[in-house]
Structure formats: structure tokens, C-alpha cells
């Protein structure tokens, strides 16, 4: 079983990256591929190795915490790898774990692919099973509280990291955020936010 890969990202799309590891290209599906933007530097990607009857798939994460949380999420009935990736694209491990502990259904239902019943199932199944995930304790307020805890702002923070890795400056990104923030829906993924920002940046 593959636990992690260390190599160079040679290509990325909206849902996966291609890593060159000793001249072998691995396709790895990620919550936010733009975090591993094409670079001359090698990166470490933590892997979940998934074997199906018709395919062998690799899912990759920037941290051990993301990897562990992904594995917990796919243990929940009705949540497959794609939905689990969407959850991690829409919220940081700290936020998702905090929401589960706080039984914050409002926050969880803003994540991609999560309805009220699924949010309740996540809380029921995982609330007592997350001790092994070392995340910072955070407060996840309900809708309408400070923007820093809003899924929209959190999604932009992750998208911003990916855009900075592509070479955009803080000034350019602040300008884009000012124009972009009112047009982002709470359920949008980081990937969707990043695509919107890139269109604005390309347009100048």
C-alpha cells in the first residue's frame, strides 16, 4: 500500500495532479490540486490507496490530518471518496472536526454534497472517533457570524494559497477578492472559487 509519494508535480487539472516519482507518473485526486501547483521543487503528498473492481485510484493530501480525516469520512455510510474530497475542499480539517464536535449542522450542510441527513450521520458516526486527528481547536460559528469563520472566506483562503503558488501577488489577489466575494455561494468548492479568480486575473 502506498502511504505517501515524494516527487515533482508535472501537471494538474481541476480534480487531480500528476506526480513524477522516479520517472513514473502517478495520477492523484486531491481536494485542491492548486495547492500542489506545478513547481520545480519536489513535494510530499500523503496518499489513500483505493482499490475497486474496475480501477486503482490514488487520493492525495497536503497533510496527515487531511489524510486521516478523509479515511474517517469514507467510513460513514453514504460518503464515498468523491464526497469526502468535496468536504475537504470546502473546509479545513480544523473546521470540519470542530463542526462535528459542536454538532454544527449549519456548517456541515454548507459543504459540497452534504445534506441535513448526511450531516447528522457524520456527527453520529464520527463524534467519538476523531481523537487521533491532531487539529487546532477552533470555534465554528453559525451562519452570519464573523467572515473569518465563514466557509466562503475559508474557501478563499485556500484558493489564495494556490494562486500565490502560481505567482500572483497579494495586491492582485486582494483586488480579485474584493470583486469576487459577493458572487461566491457557501456551497462552492475551493476549486470553483479558484477558477473564478483565475478568470478575473486573466481578464486583467
In short:
GO terms for molecular function: DNA helicase activity; hydrolase activity. With 204 residues, this protein is of the alpha+beta class.
Write the layout of secondary structure elements.
Elements: E1 4-12, E2 16-21, E3 24-29, E4 43-51, E5 56-61, H1 64-73, H2 81-90, H3 93-101, H4 105-108, H5 116-126, H6 151-165, H7 170-180, H8 190-203
Parallel strand pairs: 3-5
Antiparallel strand pairs: 1-2, 1-4, 2-3, 4-5
Helix pairs in contact: 6-8, 7-8
Q: Evaluate the radius of gyration.
A: 17 Å
Average pLDDT number? 83
In CATH's first tier, which class of the largest domain applies? Mainly Alpha
Strand order of the largest sheet: 1-2-3-5-4
Q: Could you give me the name of the CATH homologous superfamily of the largest domain? A: 5' to 3' exonuclease, C-terminal subdomain
- Report the principal-axis shape: globular
Query: End-to-end span in angstroms?
Result: 45 Å
The CATH architecture designation of the largest domain is Orthogonal Bundle
- Number of H- or I-type helical stretches: 8
According to CATH, the fold-level topology of the largest domain is: DNA polymerase, domain 1
Which stretches are poorly predicted, pLDDT < 50 over at least 5 residues? 141-149
The percent of residues in helical segments reads 40-55%
Strand residues, percent: 15-25%
Amino acid at each position: 500500500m502506498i502511504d505517501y509519494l515524494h516527487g515533482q508535480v508535472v501537471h494538474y487539472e481541476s480534480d487531480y495532479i500528476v506526480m513524477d516519482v522516479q520517472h513514473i507518473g502517478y495520477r492523484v485526486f486531491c481536494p485542491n490540486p492548486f495547492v500542489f501547483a506545478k513547481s520545480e521543487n519536489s513535494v510530499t503528498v500523503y496518499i489513500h490507496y483505493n482499490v475497486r473492481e474496475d480501477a486503482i485510484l490514488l487520493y492525495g493530501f497536503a497533510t496527515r490530518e487531511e489524510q486521516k480525516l478523509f479515511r474517517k469520512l469514507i467510513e460513514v455510510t453514504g460518503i464515498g471518496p468523491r464526497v469526502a474530497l468535496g468536504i475537504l475542499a470546502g473546509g479545513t480539517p480544523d473546521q470540519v472536526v470542530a463542526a462535528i464536535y459542536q454538532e454544527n449542522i449549519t456548517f456541515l450542510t454548507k459543504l459540497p454534497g452534504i445534506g441535513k441527513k448526511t450531516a447528522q450521520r457524520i456527527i453520529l458516526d464520527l463524534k467519538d472517533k476523531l481523537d487521533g486527528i491532531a487539529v487546532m481547536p477552533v470555534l465554528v460559528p453559525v451562519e452570519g457570524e464573523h467572515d473569518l469563520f465563514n466557509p466562503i472566506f475559508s474557501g478563499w483562503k485556500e484558493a489564495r494559497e494556490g494562486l500565490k503558488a502560481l505567482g500572483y501577488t497579494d495586491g492582485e489577489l486582494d483586488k480579485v477578492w474584493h470583486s469576487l466575494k459577493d458572487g461566491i455561494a457557501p456551497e462552492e468548492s475551493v476549486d470553483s472559487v479558484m477558477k473564478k479568480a483565475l478568470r478575473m486575473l486573466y481578464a486583467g
